Amino acid sequence: MTWQHTHSGMESTCISRETFQQIVVGDFITYLLAPDLLPSNPLREWHGRVEQVKVEDVLVSLLDEGYAGLTEVVNRHEIISVSKDR
Q1: What pLDDT is stored for residue 22 in this prediction?
Q2: Which is nearest to 30 in space by CA: 8, 63, 56, 67?
Q3: Residue 33 burial (CB < 10 Å; 0-12/13-18/19+)?
Q4: What pLDDT, in 10s, does the model give residues 52-77?
Q5: Which domains does the chain have, with CATH numbers?
Q6: pLDDT of residue 13
Q7: Using an 8 Å Cβ cutoff, are 48 and 72 in contact?
């Protein structure tokens, strides 16, 4: 899979600006890692609880096994879904 294919796939699956603006602390998100991080599995979905909301990204506490408790900044373009409960 090429970088362009992965990147274009992310663009089509990311949430809208309007949806992003409705995110609040405590929401749960599902996201893909950015292509520039060179993930070994670019289609792996990651899960986090929102701890802080900024203009174009959020700070999340990871929920995935083996990564729980770590924090990561996730850009709006990487988020594929948002929920109020897990």
Answers
A1: 96
A2: 63
A3: buried
A4: 999 999 999 999 999 998 999 999 99
A5: 3-83 (2.30.30)
A6: 78
A7: yes
